[in-house]
Amino acid sequence: MAYLGRALTSGNYLKLDDISSQFNGSTKTFNLTSGGQTFYPGSAFSILVSLGGVIQEPESSYQINQNQITFAVAPQVSDDFFCIVLGTALGIGVPGDGTVSTSKLQDASVTPAKLSASAKGVGIQSGGVTIGAGITQLNFIGLGNTFTVNGTTVDISISGGVGAGGTWASDAVGVHTTKIVGVNTTAAVGTANSEGALQAFGNIAITDGVLITDQNIDQNVFIPSGKNGLLIGPVTVGVGLTVDIASGSVLVVV
Description:
Blueprint: E1 14-15, E2 29-31, E3 33-34, E4 37-38, E5 47-51, E6 54-55, E7 62-65, E8 68-71, E9 81-85, E10 122-126, E11 129-132, E12 136-140, E13 146-150, E14 153-157, E15 168-169, E16 176-177, E17 181-182, E18 198-199, E19 204-207, E20 210-213, E21 216-217, E22 221-223, E23 228-231, E24 236-237, E25 243-245, E26 250-253
Parallel strand pairs: 10-12, 17-18, 21-24, 22-25, 23-26
Antiparallel strand pairs: 1-9, 2-8, 3-4, 5-6, 5-9, 7-8, 10-11, 13-14, 15-16, 19-20
């Protein structure tokens, strides 16, 4: 005839070791073994227990805790016993290559630490030294830059003080220099206070061919040797401040 009832549980069906030799009419808790080895049923519903020829009801007549069975009433010395395991857990094994789809992965289950270099979109370099690998490399000129993954964000710290060291080049926007470029900097760079192709400290603008500068000098100004300076007057020098011109250099006020 056809099989009736719930389908059989997957796994190995076992008969556990007989523990009736330990029955004394007072002890209720016993260790379960299979072939002499400790056995963990998992739950009271995963085993079929017969005590004194009577099938026991799970949870009501007995309970399972780890590898131990505890009866509600202590078995008598004359009681026989058998226990059938209704299926043990089977390992699912390792999925085949290319068999796990994106829909099977839980959201946020793949962390940045688990991403291979080829899976990251942009890599970071500092002075040509890789500090974060990726398909496309973004190289920051100069050493000392740092790259840190912070949760779902990336923190990039670019070392350096005033201006930018290294080489910039562009044909489209007309920026090209192998020296320092400083715009809206807090101080002029270089021993001569005029190093590089372009530096601006204070307010200066070129608008439609017109050079616009401040009328007030708010810090000491020094024109070093071999350099000339240009001021558009009138100009007010702040109290206690000086405009010094090295010998042989010229400051022109127009």
